[in-house]
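REQUEST
  id: r-88c1
  op: predict_structure
  target: Transcription initiation factor TFIID subunit 2
  payload:
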Amino acid sequence: MAKARKSKNADDSKQENSGAVVRHQKLCLSVDSDTRRIFGYTELEIVVPDIGIAGLHAENLGIARVLVDGEPAEFEYYPHHQNADSERRWSSVTSSSSAADIASSLYLSALEKELIPNLLINCCKAFKVENEMQEPLVENGSHSLAEPNQNVKVIRIDYWVEKPDAGIHFDGNVLHTDNQIRRARCWFPCIDENSQRCCYDLEFTVAHNQVAVSNGNLLYQVLSKDDPPRKAYVYRVDIPVSASWISLAVAPFEVLPDLQNALLSHMCLPANIAKLQNTVGFFYTAFSYYEEYLGAKFPFGSYKQVFISPEMTVSSLSLGASMCTFSSQILYDGKVIDKTIDTRIKLAHALARQWFGVYITPASPDDEWLLDGLAVFLTDSYIKKHLGNNEARYRRFKANCAVCKADDSGATTLSSSASCKDLYGTQSIGFYGKIRSWKSVAILQMLEKQMGPESFCKILQTIISRGLDATHPSRTLSTKEFRHLAKEVGNLERPFLKEFFPRWVGSCGCPLLRMGFSYNKRKNMVEVAVLRSCTARPEVDAPFNANADSETQETDIGWPGMMSIRVNELDGMYDHPCHSKLAARRFQKPKKGAKADGSDDNGDVAPDARSSSESPLLWVRADPEMEYLAEIHLNQPVQMWINQLEKDKDVVAQAQAIAVLEQLPHISFSVVNALNNFLCDSKAFWRVRIEAAFALASTASEETDWTGLLHLIKFYKGRRFDATIGLPKPNDFRDIPEYFVLEAIPRAVAMVRAADGKSPREAVEFVLQLLKYNDNNGNIYSDVFWLAALIESIGELKFGQQSILLLSSLLKRIDRLLQFDRLMPSYNGILTISCIRTLSQMALKLSEFIPLDRVVDLIKPFRDLKTMWQIRVEASRALLDLEFQYRGLDAALSLFIKYLEEEPSPRGQVKLGVHAMRLCQMRGSSDSDDDINSSNLVALVHLLEGRVAFNNVCLRHSLFCILQIFAGRLPTLHGVPRDKTLHVGDGETGNEQRNIFGALVTETKPPPLELPPEDAPNLSSLAVPETAKEPDTVSSCHEQQQRKPLVKIKVKRSIASSRGEEGADNQTVEKSQGGGINDHGASSSVSVDAPQRNITETVSMSNNQNNLEEVNSCHDLGSRVTASIGSVKVAGEGEDLGKEFQCTADSSKVTYISQLQEPSSQGLLEDSSLCLAPETVAYSNFPTTSAVGNHDNNSVAGAESPHRGKDKEKKKKKDKEKKRKRDDPEYLERKRLKKEKKRREKEMAKLLNDEKKTSAIEFPSKISGEDKAKEPEVQPVTAQKKTNEVGNSNAVLTKVDSRPEGSEPASAATKIRIKIKNRPLSKS
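RESPONSE
  id: r-88c1
  status: 200
  body:
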């Protein structure tokens, strides 16, 4: 398998690079900081392809000469980026849609051209075949030995770079490189692709007072005899790496060797040496922990961390092999508290990327998610080990929340040709890059939960050990190889993996589960209902999965994995694991005398009101261990949420409870007291206590007598005020967790609102008092972040008639702090930044009191180029906000273009671009009709293809996203049509290359993209599923009723709730769907099973036959119970099949779990019946496409199941059942109704086909952006027609009734029955 993979990579590299393979590269450069010039040569040992032309990448270079084997050679150099006059070319841009189309064309064309080598060297003259086997000097990717008869050439290129502005940067006497995508070519000729890896010899000559830091091990340094003397630094990289990981930093650095490991070095400019010592003191713990966890020494030998001025960097981190370049902004001294955790995590993550990303590289662009996820996983393990389990779980919980909210389109698909290869690396930039990273590690953590932490650790050790193999090292990793390791080392079953990776990795979207439960006192059971839907939009993701496996095309296929339902009772906690698998929805024949809604007259009598108070349940949690990446909304009574907040020690459970209690429509005093008690609990995690403080602020109102506000003020004064004088004490921050909580209280108080939307006078006076009497004398820590939090809390205030008198006092305090920070600059200018931010917020809220011009005049001076770059950028953003608020987006856009051209720092340009994109999104969300001036659109297009955007990859991507947002499109390259954009871009940008090597043209250019044709929109495929998922109706026909799969979980119960039923329940015999359960002893375990089935699910409404088979649950005699959690989809007229959420649980094995939940405020209804809101049912339904659901391997590949024997047996059973019912008059009547319904559906299908043909004429295959935006308007019209004809039922699903043993009512939701077993409690 390994050999096949390596040869495949080699073939790919030949296709992309005309067969040229770099086996070794030497780089010798001299740096002249005074003239901002570097010059020297590079020497490459290249395997030249048969054509005799070697293609390299080079940009912004001056090529002096080229030698091949020591002889001069012909070469041609075509710079890709050339400044062009865009005013005439883009003068036709008149609308946002046309500007977005042109932006797509330019962006894709530029990215495509960057893949083509533009330095062509003729190696034919010196052709010389080497007939002997050679031991290669280096190894390129998978090549370990030279092959015979290879045309190996040594190419030397003498060149220079003068005043560079891309890839390499000068700032005074400091030089550094960045690792932006495909920018290594801007400072040395190379094959700038991740698939090309080789070893390097590096030599840099600099001034004698400077230090040159580069990759690999420092071999030696030589001082020359020149006047003035110069120093040469020689490095060697023995491990093959790609050109993008080669880095260089030259400056008068102070070198700080690590005291515990001589191979670690930390460097910064002399002014920051004290901060550096304090910042990196912990670093050896992370370095040694990674070596211990992975079972290997650091592969690159030495490791260097370089810190330079932040205005020089494009991002806060620039990664290189065995070295990382950071912004000195993350350094902090011993007096700063707030930066400690974030800086440590950032440094630990950069080190983890050295293992996974630089040393172990992805085999293809589709595998980049895996290396990114493994690096974050390794970082999380360090956080858990050294920063605490609470910190690790809280961060993972918040990241999973963000993923579930944002994973709604194909842009978040981790591994597919549409999301990786065609995006040219841009998928890792910006917001979607962060979401992809969080999603990657969440999926890996799901696999770790499945196989166990020891097995997962062993897999990582296996990956690293393969790279260290001296004979056949393998330093690439593919998704297929990792899947194989999960099977062989992790012992995961092949059918599970076959379902898991296509669903989670190869498609977008996360499951959305809405859950509720009710307690049946008579049966001593808890019934749980689950409704499932998906966060992804099927109409967005469908076109881009056309070539994927059929199982990835089905939105409702299910998400393989496992989660637990944790029941907390009076006498303990019990976990019930549930497995999510594919199974077809089963429909049943209604019983005689059954009601239209599926209930039964023989059902249990509803328990009395005492049942809720006598219930042994304290609270219930779904997926407490975050084993399943899903958005879960759980309904339970308010008191249960309070119990969860007060008694559950898990930080995720506490955060979930606070989020639900904060959103309750009616706040009771019990909720306020619970939040206050948690806030005052010093043993609770400080981050969750801060959430409780903000929840208290949101509950404060006149209805609750401002209890939340009073609790916040009392909490703060009880810890920070002197009771004798009633004023704040001098600051004392020695209790770090308490410091963070108290720091958040002023902001929480400022967010309290009265009925008129204004801040109470007490809140304004409280903030003013804290700001006025702040005293940091005698405190060993700095109060700069403390003061910044106080200042920003002023920006949260909303002044009313009573509090407007205090405005002048607050403004004076802000002005005083601005003057103070100007004389004695604070850490990173944080005080001035907070003041600017607050002034802009106050100006937006108090436009009738504060003139806009006065505020603008106050902020403008901070944009001076001499000010700190952070302050300058914050001032620019504040002015953009004011312009946007008062004059609209078009005026703000003009100001943004002006500021962008004036901003000198690359980092500031990126931040301005991101801020402008946020303003555009705000305009889109507010449905504003502001028209964008065409001159601004042309200016943006001009910036996109200009030099500034080429130098700054992140800024270029932001400009592209801004133009896409204007047209109402997603800010990503995903989904941008390739056929017309590439054609337009190639025709309008760049000069046609002169090429004396005619045969090379077709050889060097990548093959054209093969794109599926754009057909007219398929209206029937959009409309028919919409009819099937009528949101709040369920068919009232008896033949359409659905069976409720049940889970019975036996749980202990207190004496109070079971005294009257002890005799009756000592031996319980339960019947579930035809199978019986005999209880043998007091057991509290559960197992859930369902017979394996192979059923074809189809969208065709004409093939609607009910499955009348009985479900036979098979139960063990021990503590195992079986059941299944049914579909998440309400059965409509046109739907006969669905998916199930199957569970297998054993509550005797109690584990500790947690997962994302944002439950709604609805709780249990009376009489122990479950209430699911109609809108909840509506949200759980979504269209499906035809697929085959196989319960064993979950493959969806055709219309025929592989298990033919089982199908025959089932067919025989169906035939027998049909014969038995042929004489049944009710069955004949239902059959007649079916035929009538089928006839109506055929007529509807014919109507849809006619509409489709009409729409195909109206919507050609190549449509503009404006036309695309109008396409969805057709969908609801067609869907409505279908609804009127077919979906005639309006029965609203309001509850799930409990039923007696053996009854089989219908339900649209899953039911789990939890059996609560009587057990006397201790009377003590």
